[in-house]
Task: structure prediction
Amino acid sequence: MDISVWFFISSGLFLGWSLGANHAVNVFGTAVVSKMVKFRTAAIISGIFVILGSVISGAGTTKTLTDLGSINAIAGSFSVALAVGISVTLMTRAKLPVSTSQAVIGGIIGWNIFTGSPTDYNSLSKILFSWIASPVIAALFGFLIFKLMKKTVLKWKIHLLRLDNYTRIGLIIVGALASYSLGANNIANVMGMFVSAPLFVDLNVGNLFNISGVQQLFFLGGLAIAFGIFTYGNNVMETVGTDLYKISPITGFVVVFAEFIVLFLFTSQSLEAFLLKNNLPSFPLVPLSTTQAFIGAVIGVGLAKDPLSINFKVLGKIGIGWVVAPVTAGLITFISLFFIQNVFEQKIIHPVPYQITKSVITKLNDEGIETEKINDLLNERFTNNKIFLNELKKRYDYNSEQIYSIYKYALIDSFKIDSMLVIKSLSSDQFSIEQINGLKILHGKSFSHKIDFEEAVFSDSNQWRMNGDKLKDKELSEKKNIIENIFRVTQNNKHK
Amino acid sequence: MFLKKTRKLETQIDEYLDLVIKGGLIFKLGIKCYLEDQIEEFEAHLKDLRKIEDAADDLRRNIEIKLYARTLIPEARGDVLGLLESCDKALNITEETLLEFSVEIPNLLPELKNDFIDIAESSISCLENTVSGIRAYFKNVDAVRDYVTKVQFYKKETNKIAERIKRTIFRTDNELSFKIHTRYFTFHIERIAEQSEDVCDRLSIAIIKRFE
Result:
């Protein structure tokens, strides 16, 4: 691996350090400030669980971020991570309650705008929904759990000293769970922008288990977060953790528990699968602001104690954070990308070629998107996002969603079907005999567009048709992704 | 192991409160003996009360050290120590009062004998209910209010009896010094109730803080 990779990745590690230093207070702040748990104990537990969460469960939220903007050059990832890190530091100094998760979104959109890459508005709307929903849900759970605690645990005739012991154990357990969720949910902020630029090769440990490159990346990110907790978490707890975090240990337990539930809802792929299986609405897997979830839960508990206690000033600050964080991070990203590209002459995006073919036109027509005016671009190849965008805009005033669809379908994405790969890579446990045979028949065929590949490979409607069952449809689309990744011809697997 | 240590401390707190109750009962017996002119028994009770007071002091210090050394109940620690210390002060007053009876040997009017028994009973009822309130603070928060109400009731009763004694004594033809001496002892017994009420005031605040 090129040594410069470590330089580029350092900005992500800095972001991880900053996240650990600033966010440990949301999981163990109350316990440490109230002297229920020693900082050392809290840091060890939190560090371990953050790393575990990052490596084991970090994939879900990362996918949402990469859908929003796929930063494919490491210098681009470096610039975005650095810009986000700087903007979070600046805004924290200005005492604005900003979140890394929200700044990252601004950073990615900044990259999209600078490079002319399309923004997936479906992912963006999911993310925006989660920003509002997470403190509200945290408040709801904070309210309910506190009411429940008051009616049960606080009514039990347990000696205060024993209750103190149980609270201590409870704080450690919820702190560990919340740390795990913090790692799983927020690792996307730290390392998400490096995922599309493959840095590590998969590691096979003694033929026992396989550690993917992404998991190695997440491990590094988790380590950086844990390092942030150890080195600076205590300072933040002592300075920041005075007012908001100075709540009774039992209230602290309720708040962290509610925060954990919210993080879990927006992070767990297993929960998502369970909800889909039971035809229930699922939560988007999105990186959240733990601080805002914490504040939401504090407000919920406050309402349970006194319905008139709602602090509109705090609510206003959360609202300001939703706007200020992404806008500032987006601007700083834009400026830093300009410098990295023009002053340091680094590649901030690997050019992705586009070509409008007949099948693309057909697909666009099916979606009701105007194509007559772009017919003259048929079969013309574009290697620069911005030029392609300008050409499209010159011809018709497409809206952002239409542009996103055109980019998606016109993207040149090479596929070649090889029956040997079918036998080697597709297991009969996961794929049906018909699905496997359908692929074998297509041996030797090549495709330059994803839609052509999908048209040929997934044409058997009996095997590949979505039938409205959310879980089955999700599994089907995951299978399709697996097949696409196997037969995609990239720089790394050209030998195939 | 952690829970075992906590249980030992729970037992120590209970033992401490038991000593306060015992101290109150001995005080009552001591006053009765003094009023009945059973001076030997009275002195024996004073001796017992001093031992109890010393034991309670040691136990309280031990509890305080453990609470701080093991950073137990960090949020409520200040309140608990305050409660135990002010409760200890009430126990000290019982011991001091009995000691003053022993040293000054006040001459009390026979017609005030029942009133003195009543004021001792009423003051010690205050102390006993305060101790029950503290126990409830640890184990059964809902019951604290009942005990606080009882303490307030007995404190008012004590004040009424004290007033009655003072009115009676100051309407006699005795020497002023004699009257003041009697008032002084009434005041001392009344202080037990006053101190118990102070403990209960702390208790009422401590309960609110537990639900914050």
